[in-house]
Amino acid sequence: MFTGIVQATCEVVAIHKKDGLNTLEVAFEPDLHEGLAIGASVANNGVCLTVTQVVDDMVFFDVVEETLRLTNLANLSIGQSVNVERSLTFGSEIGGHILSGHIHTKAKVVDISHTEQHYDLTLGIESKWMDYIFYKGFVGVNGCSLTVGEVSDSGFKLHLIPETLKLTNLSQYKVGDELNIEIDSQTQVIVDTVERVLARRFNEQAR
To answer: May I ask the CATH architecture of the domain 8-86?
Structure first.
């Protein structure tokens, strides 16, 4: 489990590609990999990955074909940075929202509005996922727990504060790039349950 509070942006220093599998080699700061063991879970751009090897400051992660298909990790190149968060430990302060590290879909950056007063991202997403995204609700974007701004049938807006831009890689993305999206699992359960109950009642009344 994760909180959506990114701890660091870490550079991808190598990508070892095999059939159906990419191994990412990511450079961690010493304090970030302290006590990190093989088998530990770490979120990279919001994707929960398992540590397979630790060599000095380099941490290795295997990314299987299904994960490459569903996330933007397939689009990484050497020198890019990923948002990193280590898994939540008992007794830790939860400053964001609970995330699982399981990405539901990707959103495309359709507009960037950057002025001295604000930095706004407008994201386009498959319409079926908009059932779970609400104004002033929250969503996981590349592993960042963020508050949703204006919504439409096909996307939503994010209003990013300078601290978020400083601590994450979101300012590196351009129009047309894709971001990993994790919706709130509780919201999904509530919406799906209500829809199922209403559908059942409608069918019963129609008999």
So the answer is: Beta Barrel (2.40)
